[in-house]
Design goal:
Strand content of chain B: over 45%
Radius of gyration of chain A: 13 Å
Largest sheet of chain B: 6 strands, mixed
Order of helices and strands of chain A: EEEEEEEEEEE
Shape of chain B: globular
Shape of chain A: globular
Radius of gyration of chain B: 13 Å
Largest interface: A-B, 25 and 22 residues
Distance between the termini of chain B: 37 Å
Oligomer: heterodimer
Order of helices and strands of chain B: EEEEEEEEEEE
Helix content of chain A: under 10%
Distance between the termini of chain A: 36 Å
Number of helices of chain B: 0
């Protein structure tokens, strides 16, 4: 039962570089989400997707791009990384909206130097 | 007022104690609620779903009070392994967005 997997687990890069974080789920869940969590803070929604080819902005979308060409994948791209994007990134999925919980991946710890 | 508010704590309790956390929410239309636990910046893990008046799972009991718009989490016979941050999550009426509380930190001491 692979569930939801994120890659890489850890990433160090430099400012200005493009970085893509991968998220893959095996449950065929409709909804997928990207969150960031900064040290000492709560989770903040970056983008979410209700189905393949449907994405929408969350609370903090600036500097990020997402796509969802297939139901199982939801990559997150930092087009030109900045130090303020150093964070832990969590991907999540849920079967339905509202009455079903979200299930989270292990997270990607991203450091931008 | 925040959409979801939790007492940040920290709550420091001895092993075997009973501890309760509250989570208040502002949207009276909310129908379902979730409690997660998170260990030291690892991924949040679902602890309990609450759809009606409450739910119980072993030592954990969640209660929903719609009139006062809060959800509580009660942990009985606390274990060292219960030390974590507990997150209250309320799906918004806008599909796709949930509001996460900032979490309540629990430390169980021997």
């Amino acid at each position: 039962d692979a569930g939801i997997t994120q890659s890489p687990r850890y990433k160090i890069t430099e400012t200005g570089r493009q970085v893509t974080l991968m998220c893959h789920q095996t449950w065929s869940h409709s909804y997928m989400f990207w969150y960031r969590q900064d040290l000492g803070h709560g989770l903040r929604l970056i983008y979410y997707s209700a189905a393949a080819d449907i994405t929408d902005k969350g609370e903090v979308p600036d500097g990020y791009v997402v796509s969802r060409s297939k139901t199982e994948n939801f990559p997150l791209t930092l087009e030109s990384a900045t130090r303020s994007q150093t964070s832990v990134y969590f991907c999540a999925s849920s079967q339905q909206w509202g009455n079903q919980p979200q299930h989270f991946g292990d997270g990607t710890r991203l450091s931008i130097l | 007022r925040k959409e979801v508010e939790q007492d940040p704590g920290p709550f420091n309790v001895p092993e075997g104690a009973t501890v309760a956390f509250n989570c208040t929410y502002s949207n009276s239309a909310s129908q379902s609620f979730f409690w997660y636990r998170q260990d030291c910046r690892k991924e949040p893990k679902l602890l309990m779903s609450v759809y009606s008046s409450g739910n119980e799972d072993g030592r954990f009991t969640a209660q929903l009070n719609r009139a006062s718009q809060y959800i509580s989490l009660l942990i009985r016979d606390s274990k060292l392994s219960d030390s974590a941050t507990y997150l209250c999550v309320v799906p918004n009426t806008n599909a796709g967005k949930s509001t996460f509380g900032d979490g309540t930190t629990l430390t169980v001491k021997p």
